[in-house]
Amino acid sequence: MGKIGVHGIKLYAFHGCTDEEQKIGTNYEIDVVIELDLSKPSISDNLNETVDYVIIYDIVREEMSIKSRLIEHVAKRISDALMQQIPEIEKIKVTVAKLHPPVNGIVNRVFAELEETR
User: Fold this and answer.
1) Spatial contact of 59 and 33, defined as CB atoms under 8 Å apart
2) Domain count, the chain
């Protein structure tokens, strides 16, 4: 068992509960960690025996382009899409963070994090 992580995916998207958030958008940062059997690729050094992190990035980017009111919903969509398209995943953790959210104060980020096991 091993882990592959893609941390700090920075995207601009249009999620939020207010009309303003859905119109003007904001910056997001997404982290994905998957757990899977890495015994073969760790020996073979063959990309075809592991999960290419480019595929992870592309799936995250695609799901982030679909508007949602809640970042929890976005995290679930990302997790579901990755689990569906990459059958080798045994466990996944997805974190979606909204940077500088519109709250009455100074906040660096808010986030939703989901973990799922196959």
Assistant:
1) no
2) 1
